[in-house]
């Protein structure tokens, strides 16, 4: 049942974002930044954590979850290292996810034939 919940929640988040992309004139990059910022804000006010615990990967994998992960990393680093944690907390909390995305993206480019859009 956890997989179904994660699929439905993640799909709902992605569907809402897709509708937002289709109905507005905002560029995808700006929408992505807004999603990360929204995840950070929702994490800071304490709304996203209970939602992420309930929804699992459906809430932590989309970009909103990335913002939430960055916020949690900065919060923990500030508690342990003080002001310096503002600069290093986000990097340490998201390093594995970013590294995996780069590595798997590179592997996919070796397996498949990437082409530039025309």
TrEMBL record:
InterPro entries: SpoVA (IPR005562). The keyword Transit peptide does not apply. The keyword Membrane applies. The chain crosses the membrane at residues 6-24, 31-48, 54-71, 83-112. Keywords: Membrane, Transmembrane, Transmembrane helix. It comes from the Bacteria. This is Stage V sporulation protein AE. The lineage of its organism: Bacteria, Bacillati, Bacillota, Clostridia, Lachnospirales.
């Amino acid at each position: 049942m956890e997989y179904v919940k994660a699929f439905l929640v993640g799909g709902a988040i992605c569907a809402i974002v897709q509708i937002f992309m289709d109905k507005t004139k905002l560029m995808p990059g700006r929408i992505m930044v807004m999603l990360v910022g929204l995840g950070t804000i929702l994490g800071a006010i304490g709304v996203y954590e209970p939602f992420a615990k309930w929804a699992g990967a459906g809430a932590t994998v989309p970009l909103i979850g990335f913002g939430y992960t960055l916020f949690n990393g900065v919060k923990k680093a500030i508690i342990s290292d003080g002001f310096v944690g503002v600069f290093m907390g986000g990097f340490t909390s998201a390093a594995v996810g970013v590294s995996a995305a780069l590595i798997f993206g590179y592997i996919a480019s070796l397996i498949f034939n990437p082409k530039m859009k025309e």
